[in-house]
Amino acid sequence: MNPKDPEEVLLERTRDLLNRKVENLGPQTERRLGEIRVRALTGAEEERPGLFSPRRWAVVGSFAAATMVAAALFFWPTPSPEPLPAGQPEDLEIITSQEHLDFYQNLDFYRWLGTAENGSGRNGKTS
User: Fold this and answer.
1) Pseudo-torsion of CA 75, 77, 81, 83, nearest 10°?
2) Assigned domain for 119 exists
3) Which pTM value belongs to this model?
4) Among 48, 52, 49, which residue's Cα sits nearest to residue 60?
């Protein structure tokens, strides 16, 4: 004898209980269940809208329009807050040059050195 699986025992008991409950349904409940069954079957047989129905195209068109508006708002170019200064070709050459990088690292020192107070030697006046 093989012992039964606990799940199988539970399923058998549940099936038996439900079958007994179905046998004891009243006539009013059976009539309502029959009406519900007929409505479900007739609803399933009704014609469903096809692939090219106007309703389906309206939904697809609405979705496409909403997507386009969202993409346009996301990628819409915004004006620059302030115009870029007009540069000189020499400035571009200095910025892109790889030479004399040590000069730019000490730029603050050279600015200080070039000021009138610190560069003249005497009270900000040159002799």
Assistant:
1) 140
2) no
3) 0.29
4) 52
The number of angstroms, rounded, from the C-alpha of 71 to the middle of its chain's C-alpha atoms is 12
Q: Looking at the predicted structure, is the pLDDT value of residue 89 above 80? A: no
Residues 6+ apart with CB under 8 A from 110: 103
Domain that holds residue 20: 9-44
Q: What is the 3-state secondary structure (H, E, C) of the chain?
A: CCCCCHHHHHHHHHHHHHHHHHHCCCHHHHHHHHHHHHHHHHHHHCCCCCCCCHHHHHHHHHHHHHHHHHHHHHHCCCCCCCCCCCCCHHHHHHHHCCCCHHHHHCHHHHHHHHCHHHHHCECCECC
* Position 70 in a domain: no
**Looking at the DSSP assignment, which residues form a beta bridge with residue 125?**
122
* pLDDT-derived band at 71, boundaries 50, 70, 90: very high
Cα–Cα distance for residue pair 126/92, rounded to 1 Å: 33
